[in-house]
Model the fold of this input.
Amino acid sequence: MPACSPSASTELIENDRGAQQQEPALQLALQVLHNLQYQHEWTNLQVHQSSPQNDVFNEDTDSSIASPKPLISGFPPQRIYVHPDEQVEMIKASIKESEMDPEPEWVLPTHIREKWSIKQMARVFDSIPFEPPSTPSRKEGTIDERPTNSESNRRRGGKRVLLATVGDDSTIVYYIVHEKIVKPRQN
Done:
């Protein structure tokens, strides 16, 4: 009987240079990246590793802080979150959510057995700017150079990450996590 061929996720991890020496957090990030790219059709995906040479520069605090885990950035096929104030404006202008351009998002890969504290989550938020830096624009393919420290360019509701929780059976569930309290959406 022929052996089963490896899954696409396994091939992705094994084909990546130095896969045998990679830490589990990076392998988890690659698994989530694969899921975002092939199951959810995200584009312009990048893994941001936490190393002294690769710390994320936070323009809001003018400092460099290492994230406790690798992060992923990219563009979803449609908008992930609409702030309640923006939702009201959309209703008044008769704009549908599907007509809005997607925003670049941060994704934090985690495993279901990991225990997260508020302090650990705060460190993740401290390590990132409001939007991923120098993100290629989804529509034009150009680099988005908007200043992230300008109040007019900040996304409403403050910083957020998409928490990607991988289960023991490789199922991935996504949760939106905000740095601060955000008022609820109106139905």
